[in-house]
Amino acid sequence: MKSIGKLFITVASLSLFFVSCSDDSDSGQKPLGDYEKGFFVLNEGNSNPSTASVTFIGDNGAIEQNVFGNVNPNEIGMGSYLQSMFFAGDKAFIISGSANKVTVVDRYTFKYLASVTTNLENPRYGALVNGKIYITNYADYSTGADDFLTVVDPLNYSTTKILLNNWSERVLEHNGKLYIANGYYGSGNSVTVFNTTTGTADKVINLGTSNSPNSMEVKDGILYVLASNDSDQGTIFRINLTTNEVVSSVEVPAEIENPKQLDIENDKIYFTAGTSVYNLGINATSVATTPVMSYSSTSAWGQMYGFKIQNGKIYIADGGDFASDSKVYQYSAAGSLLNTYTVGVGPNGFYFQ
What we know:
The protein is mainly beta. The protein has helices spanning 11-17, 67-71, and strands spanning 38-43, 53-58, 63-64, 82-88, 91-96, 101-106, 112-116, 123-129, 132-137, 148-152, 159-163, 171-174, 177-184, 187-195, 200-206, 212-219, 222-228, 234-240, 245-251, 260-265, 268-273, 276-281, 293-294, 306-310, 313-318, 327-332, 337-342, 347-352.
């Protein structure tokens, strides 16, 4: 468990792929699809049989379970143990780590478009850069030496492979480059700056012994990386993306064990630990030990399994027992419970339109 050069020949095809994500209905344009307004919850699911699914929660509060199956009843399923999902223009790419498969759908209608099944081995996360899709792969989980990137051509879904020789987990794009977290539950202690033009790493930014990055986000030219060490203690690193150097760091207090899931909104950094959410100012030099909020969970392995801050609200997914449908919770920024939604098995992430 949780666990794109210039390709287009015509202006028309370019505009189709990089369609705007804004609310077109306000300008009188035809809605893009049934899933234009709201957010998706990725349900990791289980196997034998696979219970992996996607839930959609509309801005009006309406819930639709098993969106992929409803829209595509005659297509083969997405695979079990869904790992992550990302958007590239008007497409959504859904990664199944256990099936070594990426399912491509229209993000607004969820109509099936294609499956990518080549040059994948335990795929993890993906990003769009300069018209191509890049997906990290863990290959053999026991070593980072065989980790690699799968490069996908979104016109014909053909793939190529680039060996990275380093742990390759979360990935994001900034100014045409990839930033790859070289870490996974204690393995690796760096961030790779990957140049998609040359197909090589510009730099590997060392975070120090045992500081394994678990989450990261870019804000105003700074990459914020949350890492945890062998003692379950955490540090937030600030990396200047002009120089690719660590410019400062903030230690998470020792009493906040195993911090993870960093997210940023409105000049505040949020992260989780156990069943609590903490925050600090974007330029803060210390972390308060009093949480913003906490919730109750009886899940043995799925406490705070998914987390997101969006439009001033806190979203939490609880993994439950990984056998039956579970819950996601919406809280105010002050920690008041606003809504509870029933979703699928093992919800692990939120993806907003």
